[in-house]
């Protein structure tokens, strides 16, 4: 029941925000129902931890470890983004009468994001991912400026182009399943179970098509070009959702395919994934050195982390799968925090350029400290959770006997670290330039930043036992051994 | 060879030719016409296969294709982009048309080489025809997206790619549940509504729908100090 409620709640919220009498309090409705959504996600996760899986409608809505983890991440990030948008959107002048539209679309985006992991039927998953793309395009273009429209256009062409390619992949998967076993309903579970009776060549073809199609949506290099544009131009709460979870959701589908594929050991797909992952990490690391806009900086860091997750999944051992899913969780919570902080800075200083911000710590101690905190966390400094998961990925790579991969990955992570911290260092320390400003950021934004910082601070030193168990269950779905 | 299968082969061949024609046409309106013809041929193919295999799903897909891609989408495009379609005469491309056609030919050959052996090992004649041609249409559509610099042809390119995917789909996944087809049809309409909205907004703000004019956002290392 909880799983159905998870899917329905955002739809109800979107409908309520659209109702004319409620339009004025759309934000309150959104925040309340997002918190309900998070509570429901916790219930689903608890159910999965207790029983291994939660079934909403058998064959259609089912959640296992990986799905529950993604639902948990999505609902957490989306709830905080809703809190943050209260203060942020009220500061945006000229859009007051469209606010209800923003919240309505926002809730529809949340719906699309949770429906993808909640669905068990692969063909509907494809539809879900397309809905995610559509609502994100609308939200990216919300501010209606030249930059926002350009970003939305690049975003829609590159990501919608991926759709037919992925569709062909799903159809080939369906074909492989039908010729393999016959007429059970097609679910992720059934696909995994019958992987050994499917044609390896077809599985490989379908994986490659889905990888290209959804890889564009995830932001793997060289299909990442939309990502920094969209993430720098969209309203900040949307950036947090896009960067934190919108990239994670198509990646989740790719990881599902990986889980099926590893049921056929003769299909060697790990090497391909490692190479693609390292290319993404590398391109992002070098772009981080020359970036001029701090929101784009965090966007490139997303490309880097997607590459790391892919590389870890490609190593295909139990330990690296665990690293991969924890990296997914840690990246989402940390990256959304980064974008809240970036949004707060944008509100105070009204510039996106790194070079025109100096001495942030003196202009606004709260923002300066928050930027330093979240940048250290996202770059992977100890004792933050990303350090832990990156370290465990590198360790598992050594164990699995891939010293070259580990060396390259470690080098690129260090380069990205240096690039990011170099830019942040310039912004945080030094003497402020320009006339002194005193703009108080809204209280809801502060609350969102502090709330988002709590798990980032805690998970690095202490992972609660249920969460650890959930991560383990999720890692099992990736099929490494 | 049964009549149904050979008619399907004819239709698939014409669909591939339509893909080439879309790459080779300079006028936006011409591209749209070839897209309509291609969608009609796709519907014909799915009716033929539906008749052969007694599959109600394929009939439904054919009807959805006609409604969505032959009637609704062209109508929306003409409504929202009337001036664009009829006043602007030539599409700007980064690669000229003969070279584009040559590249498309290479893509088609590549698609056949990629899945040809696979489909002849796995399936019947329909699969052997539809899978490589479908993949070729997807690849040619992707190429035309990269080469064309304008919003409307890019949009039609995406829809043509989807036609390619469905051409392969009707051969390999005949009993796909209806719900998937319905959702796909809704999806297509949504895409058009959104992208139509976007192109109109972009035109209002920047004055053109040439995607090449969109170049505010990029990294320029030399300006970094």
Kindly give the count of domains of chain A: 1
Order of helices and strands of chain A: HHEEHHHHHHHHHHHHHHHHHH
Please state roughly what percent of the residues of chain B sit in beta strands, choosing from under 5%, 5-15%, 15-25%, 25-35%, 35-45% or over 45%.
Answer: under 5%
Q: What would you call the structural class of chain B?
A: mainly alpha
Provide an overview of this structure:
The complex is a heterodimer of chains A (481) and B (225). Chain A has 481 residues and is mainly alpha-helical. Chain A has one domain (2-477). Chain A has helices at 2-18, 26-51, 65-91, 99-118, 122-140, 146-180, 188-193, 200-218, 226-233, 236-246, 248-261, 270-289, 294-315, 318-349, 360-363, 365-379, 385-399, 403-428, 443-459, 465-477; strands at residues 54-57, 61-63. Chain A has a two-stranded antiparallel ribbon with strand order 1-2. In chain A, helix 3 packs antiparallel against helix 10. Chain B is an all-alpha fold and 225 residues long.
Could you provide a short overview of the structure?
By secondary structure, chain A is an all-alpha fold.
Layout of helices and strands, plus pairs?
The complex is a heterodimer of chains A (481) and B (225).
Chain A: H1 2-18, H2 26-51, E1 54-57, E2 61-63, H3 65-91, H4 99-118, H5 122-140, H6 146-180, H7 188-193, H8 200-218, H9 226-233, H10 236-246, H11 248-261, H12 270-289, H13 294-315, H14 318-349, H15 360-363, H16 365-379, H17 385-399, H18 403-428, H19 443-459, H20 465-477
Antiparallel strand pairs in A: 1-2
Helix pairs in contact in A: 1-2, 1-4, 2-3, 2-20, 3-4, 3-10, 3-14, 3-19, 3-20, 4-5, 5-6, 5-10, 6-8, 6-9, 8-11, 9-10, 9-13, 10-14, 12-13, 12-18, 13-14, 13-18, 14-16, 14-17, 14-19, 14-20, 16-18, 17-18
Chain B: H1 3-24, H2 28-53, H3 56-80, H4 82-87, H5 97-122, H6 125-147, H7 151-172, H8 178-206
Helix pairs in contact in B: 1-2, 1-6, 1-7, 2-3, 2-7, 3-8, 5-6, 6-7, 7-8
């Amino acid at each position: 029941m909880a799983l159905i409620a998870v899917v329905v709640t955002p739809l109800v919220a979107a409908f309520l925000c659209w109702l004319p009498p409620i339009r004025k309090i759309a934000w309150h409705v959104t925040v309340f129902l997002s918190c309900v959504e998070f509570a429901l996600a916790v219930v689903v996760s608890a159910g999965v931890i207790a029983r291994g899986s939660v079934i909403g409608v058998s064959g259609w809505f089912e959640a296992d470890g990986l799905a529950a983890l993604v639902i948990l991440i999505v609902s957490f990030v989306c709830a905080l983004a809703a809190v943050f948008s209260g203060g942020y959107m009220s500061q945006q002048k000229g859009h007051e009468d469209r606010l209800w539209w923003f919240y309505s679309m926002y809730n529809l985006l949340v719906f699309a994001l949770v429906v993808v992991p909640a669905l068990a039927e692969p063909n509907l998953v494809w539809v879900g991912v397309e809905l995610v793309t559509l609502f994100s395009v609308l939200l990216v273009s919300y501010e209606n400026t030249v930059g926002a429209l350009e970003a939305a256009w690049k975003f829609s062409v590159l990501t919608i182009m991926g759709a037919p390619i992925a569709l062909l992949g799903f159809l080939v998967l369906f074909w492989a399943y039908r010729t393999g076993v016959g007429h059970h309903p097609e679910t992720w579970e059934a696909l995994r179970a019958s992987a050994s009776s499917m044609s390896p060549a077809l599985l490989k073809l379908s994986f490659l098509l889905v990888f290209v199609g959804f890889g564009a949506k995830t932001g793997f290099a060289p299909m990442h070009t939309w990502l920094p544009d969209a993430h720098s131009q969209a309203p900040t709460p949307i950036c947090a959702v896009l960067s934190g979870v919108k990239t994670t959701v198509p990646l989740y589908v790719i990881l599902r395919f990986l889980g099926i594929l590893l049921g056929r050991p003769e299909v060697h797909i790990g090497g391909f994934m490692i190479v693609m992952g390292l290319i993404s990490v590398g391109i992002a690391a070098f772009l981080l050195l020359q970036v001029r806009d701090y929101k784009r900086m965090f966007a490139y860091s997303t490309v880097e982390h997607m590459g790391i997750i892919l590389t870890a999944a490609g190593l295909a051992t139990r330990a690296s799968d665990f690293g991969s899913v924890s990296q997914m969780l840690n990246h989402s919570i940390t990256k959304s925090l980064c974008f809240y902080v970036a949004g707060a800075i944008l509100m105070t200083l009204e510039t996106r350029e790194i070079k025109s911000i100096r001495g942030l710590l003196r202009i606004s101690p709260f923002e300066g400290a928050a930027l330093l905190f979240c940048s250290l966390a996202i770059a992977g400094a100890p004792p933050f959770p990303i350090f832990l998961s990156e370290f465990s990925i590198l360790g598992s790579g050594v164990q699995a006997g891939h010293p070259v991969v580990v060396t390259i990955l470690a080098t690129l992570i260090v380069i990205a670290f240096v690039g990011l911290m170099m830019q942040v260092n310039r912004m945080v320390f030094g003497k402020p330039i320009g006339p002194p400003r005193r703009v108080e950021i809204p209280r809801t934004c502060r609350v969102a930043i502090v709330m988002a910082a709590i798990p980032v601070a805690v998970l690095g030193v202490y992972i609660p036992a249920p969460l650890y168990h959930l991560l383990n269950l999720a890692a099992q779905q990736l099929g490494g051994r | 060879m049964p009549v149904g299968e050979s008619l399907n082969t004819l239709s698939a061949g014409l669909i591939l030719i339509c893909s080439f024609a879309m790459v080779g046409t300079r006028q936006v309106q011409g591209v749209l016409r070839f897209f309509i013809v291609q969608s009609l041929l796709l519907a014909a193919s799915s009716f033929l296969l539906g008749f052969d295999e007694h599959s109600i799903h394929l009939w439904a897909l054919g009807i959805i294709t006609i409604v969505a891609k032959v009637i609704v989408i062209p109508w929306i495009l003409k409504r929202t982009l009337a001036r664009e379609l009829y006043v602007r005469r030539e599409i700007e491309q980064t690669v000229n048309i003969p070279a584009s056609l040559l590249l498309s030919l290479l893509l088609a050959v590549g698609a056949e080489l990629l899945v040809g052996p696979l489909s002849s090992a796995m399936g019947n004649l329909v699969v052997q025809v539809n899978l490589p041609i479908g993949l070729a249409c997807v690849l040619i559509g992707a190429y035309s997206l990269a080469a064309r610099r304008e919003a409307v042809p890019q949009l039609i390119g995406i829809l043509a790619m989807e036609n390619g995917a469905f051409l392969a789909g009707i051969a390999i996944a005949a009993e796909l549940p209806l719900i998937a087809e319905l959702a796909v049809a809704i999806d297509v309409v949504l895409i058009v509504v959104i992208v139509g909205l976007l192109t109109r907004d972009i035109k209002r703000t920047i004055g053109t729908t040439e995607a090449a004019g969109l170049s505010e956002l990029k990294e320029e290392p030399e300006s970094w100090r």
